[in-house]
C-alpha cells in the first residue's frame, strides 16, 4: 500500500514543514516494519524520490532514530523514541510506581506481567516483568499491539469517550471486521466484571487476563495484564482463578499508590 502525505504537505494545513513531515513519515512507516526496509522500498511506500529519502535517512541515522544494516541494506527503527517517551513524567512515574508490585506478582503466580497504556489505536507496553521460571511467555517492552486483539485493549478502550470508541471501531471494521464482535464482548465483560479475560489472538494456548490501573480521579490510565499459561511439572503453579485474584489485588495496589480511591477491579470471584 502506498502512503503519501504530499497533499497534506502542500496545503491541508495553514503551516507546513515538509522536511519534518518527511522525517515523521519515515519513522511511522518503520515503526510498522520490524524487519526493516531498504531505502528504495521506503521511497516507494511514501511516494518520495530516493534522493529525498536518502537525506532524511542520513539525518535520522546520525541522530540515532534509525539504524542501518550494511549486510541487508535495511533501515530499522531504534528504541530512541521509546526512550524519549519514558522521559515523559507521567509514563516514567507510572512505570516506576508499578514495577515493585509487578515483580512481586510475577514471583507469586509464576507468570509474566506487563503494563500497557493507550497509544493511538494500539496499546504500548511500558513495563514488563518475566516469570521467574525457565519457560517464559511475555510481551516485549516497548511493543505496540492493536487494541482490538488484546485484553489490555478492552480495558483501556473503556476509558475512551463514546465518539472516540465508535471511530476506533469503524477503523477496525474497515481493516479487520471479524475482530469487532469479539472485541465488543470483551469490553462488555470488562465493564460488567471489572476485569477482562480472553483467549490470545496471537499465541495459541495463552489466556490473557487484564485489570485496570486508575489514577487519583478514578480514570483508567493503564492496564495490568498476565498472559496466563498452564505450567506442567512444576511445584509452583496457581490455577487461573487464584492467579486472577492476585492480579486484581495488584491492580488495586498500584491504583492506590497513584492516589486512587476507586476500586481498581471488580470481584475476585471466579466467573
Automatic annotation (TrEMBL):
Keywords: DNA-binding, Transcription, Transcription regulation. Residues 17-79 form the HTH iclR-type domain. This is IclR family transcriptional regulator. Signal peptide: none annotated. Gene3D superfamilies: 3.30.450.40, Winged helix-like DNA-binding domain superfamily/Winged helix DNA-binding domain. InterPro entries: GAF-like_dom_sf, HTH_MetabolicPath_Reg, Tscrpt_reg_IclR_C, Tscrpt_reg_IclR_N, WH-like_DNA-bd_sf, WH_DNA-bd_sf. The keyword RNA-binding does not apply. One of its GO terms (biological process) is negative regulation of DNA-templated transcription. Residues 80-260 form the IclR-ED domain. PROSITE patterns: HTH_ICLR (PS51077), ICLR_ED (PS51078). The keyword Transcription applies.
